[in-house]
Write a structure and sequence with these properties.
single chain, 104 residues, mainly alpha, 2 domains, two-stranded antiparallel ribbon, 2 strands
């Protein structure tokens, strides 16, 4: 939950509640890590994989065809742009969070 919370900006409690709901619907399983018993490993179930294939399989295969049409250099440029755009958004979000709220 902690790693997902850090990656998504959700609180650990919200992530735990989300995982609880997914597990109740049979979409994920929880097991203890073999390396570190304090950690819990969340894994997709066969049902999740089947649903993912049903709804996203075709678009994933078509997306692979689109990406194959670009050279490695072109993809590196796209990745550099996406990284720069994400960094800009992160910086601006941090700036907005640091500003005091105005009375409107």
């Amino acid at each position: 939950a902690g790693a997902v919370a850090a990656a998504t900006g959700l609180t650990p409690a919200a992530v735990t509640a989300l995982i609880d709901r997914l597990e109740a619907r049979g979409l994920v399983t929880r097991t203890r890590s073999l390396e570190d018993r304090r950690k819990v490993v969340i894994e997709a179930t066969d049902l999740t994989r089947e649903l993912s294939e049903r709804y996203y399989g075709a678009i994933a295969r078509e997306g692979e065809k689109v990406m194959a049409a670009f050279s490695a250099a072109e993809l590196a440029t796209v990745l550099r742009f996406i990284d720069a755009a994400l960094e800009l958004q992160s910086e601006q979000l941090a700036r907005l969070k640091a500003e005091p709220a105005s009375a409107g």
